[in-house]
């Protein structure tokens, strides 16, 4: 019999469901944790100790690099060493404390990735401050929600994002005490912030304040909480990049990866690895989708337990209760356990519907597949148990839609293009092409579309702060058009 490497260990047997409870699969753990979780490294107990120990070991190594535009062209990389970054972080942290920010306060960071972003984050770690990212890809509606919900009163911001932060619609900005720009603020932005009672600082001014007012660091004490890549792409990267490429799996709620692959094992291609050292994993039955953790192959919802799992959703005890059962966090992702002890992510549990003919449809999966269609910028797929077919609201990709219009002799606005039956038919044909390429089943094909020029946004309450679709709100918003579309489709049949 062929010896097969095994990459996780079973520490508890699975059990059949009873009394209305689902079946659960065996509990698996990292090979290093067979007899229990090993003691953590005492020198690596927080993000601050991780950073500061790296500075001690590699003070002269390059840490943060960026490129400047010179005469309209990208120049060479400019670098700061670990020690240079560390010194700047200490100045930023001192300036925060000199400004009245106390341990436990929430500090927002709003902008694209850059050295200042990282240094602001590390400064928060040095003084037990809560770093709150304000999503750079979202509009003022999301920023307004995050500032209010997290009770942020101090923000670091990229220069091009200052106007969005000071937008009158971003009402929560009025609660801010100070703003620090990654570079410097324009005079009009300084004046506007001053009128709102908000202090403003350029990055240079803030560093100078920190140098003049040094403050002892007060890092946090250690505590116990802290879309798969296609196999073709992963294998290509492993072969061509001359570097280790591994996949892992994790969520915000698991504070990073709860599974991780091995860099020198090709059997991990297409999978997300084995359990991380401080996590237990098991699969739970999802009968409606036909996933059985005691079947062959074992499949079910991925549930995680261990030292890295979050404690609660901030200000949302109801969602916290829904997500945990007997200490197990339910991820909403469907996994498959392979014979060699590694996991694959194969589906999503949530947003599953049954069509009138009894077929189940995973809406998020279809949206991910159809979303690669070039004419599409975003798509919301809709169906219900009283209909036999799916329809969709399609947000047009502006550039590609305008190219289509030019080729077809139309010189109207994007919103006017949305009403053209010729474009609707073209979008349907492109969706069909995508479905054909992905070998979808007949009931997964989109049969009718509503074209939309405007992205799904928070202003209309159609998405969350992290751009997840609010399906009930989308249905309310487009209900009349969906009813009309189904009527027309039924009449044609």
Automatic annotation (TrEMBL):
A single Gene Ontology CC term: membrane
UniProt xrefs under Gene3D superfamilies: N-terminal domain of ligase-like
Recorded metabolic or biological pathway in which this protein acts: Lipid metabolism; fatty acid metabolism
Cofactor: Mg(2+)
Gene Ontology process terms (BP): cutin biosynthetic process; wax biosynthetic process
Domain AMP-dependent synthetase/ligase: from-to ranges: 55-193, 227-314
SUPFAM superfamilies per record: Acetyl-CoA synthetase-like
Domain of life: Eukaryota
Protein name: AMP-dependent synthetase/ligase domain-containing protein
MF GO annotations: long-chain fatty acid-CoA ligase activity
Annotated Pfam families: AMP-binding (PF00501)
């Amino acid at each position: 019999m062929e010896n097969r490497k095994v990459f996780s260990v079973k520490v508890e047997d699975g059990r059949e469901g009873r009394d209305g409870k689902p079946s659960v699969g065996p509990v698996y753990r990292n090979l290093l944790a067979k007899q229990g979780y090993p003691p953590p490294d005492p020198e690596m107990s927080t993000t601050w100790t991780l950073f500061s120990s790296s500075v001690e070991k590699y003070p002269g190594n390059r840490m943060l690099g960026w490129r400047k535009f010179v005469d309209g062209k990208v120049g060479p990389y400019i670098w700061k060493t670990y020690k240079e970054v560390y010194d700047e972080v200490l100045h930023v942290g001192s300036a925060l404390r000199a400004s009245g920010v106390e341990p436990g306060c929430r500090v927002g960071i709003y902008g694209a990735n850059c050295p200042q972003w990282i240094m602001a984050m590390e400064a928060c770690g040095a003084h037990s401050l809560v770093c709150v990212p304000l999503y750079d890809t979202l509009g003022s509606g999301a920023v307004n929600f995050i500032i209010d919900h997290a009770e942020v009163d101090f923000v670091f911001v990229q220069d091009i994002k200052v106007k969005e932060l000071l937008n009158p619609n971003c009402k929560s900005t009025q609660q801010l005490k100070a703003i620090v720009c990654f570079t410097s603020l324009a005079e009009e932005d300084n004046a506007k912030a001053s009128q709102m009672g908000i202090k403003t600082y350029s990055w240079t001014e803030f560093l100078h304040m920190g140098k003049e007012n040094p403050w002892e660091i007060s890092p946090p004490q250690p505590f116990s909480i802290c879309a798969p890549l296609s196999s073709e792409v992963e294998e290509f990267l492993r072969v061509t990049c001359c570097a280790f490429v591994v996949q892992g799996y994790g969520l915000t709620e698991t504070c990073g990866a709860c599974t991780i692959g091995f860099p020198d094992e090709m059997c991990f291609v297409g999978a997300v690895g084995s359990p991380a050292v401080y996590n237990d994993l098991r699969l739970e039955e999802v009968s409606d989708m036909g996933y059985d953790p005691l079947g062959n192959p074992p499949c079910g919802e991925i549930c995680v337990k261990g030292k890295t799992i979050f404690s609660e959703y901030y200000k949302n005890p109801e969602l916290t209760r829904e997500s945990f059962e007997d200490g197990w966090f339910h991820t909403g992702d469907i996994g498959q356990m392979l014979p060699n002890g590694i996991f694959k992510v194969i589906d999503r549990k949530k947003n599953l519907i049954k069509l009138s003919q009894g077929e189940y449809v995973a809406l998020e999966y279809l949206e991910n597949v159809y979303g690669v269609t070039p004419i599409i910028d975003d798509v919301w797929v809709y169906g219900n148990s009283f209909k036999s077919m799916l329809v969709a609201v399609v947000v047009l990709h502006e550039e590609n839609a305008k190219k289509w219009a030019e080729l077809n002799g139309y010189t109207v606005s994007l919103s006017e293009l949305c009403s053209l039956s010729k474009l609707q038919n073209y979008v349907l044909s492109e969706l069909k092409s995508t479905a054909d390429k992905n070998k979808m089943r007949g009931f997964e094909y989109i049969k009718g579309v509503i074209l939309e020029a405007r992205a799904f946004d928070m202003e209309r309450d159609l998405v969350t702060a992290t751009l997840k679709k609010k399906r009930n709100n989308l249905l309310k918003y487009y209900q009349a058009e969906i009813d009309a579309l189904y009527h027309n489709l039924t009449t044609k049949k």
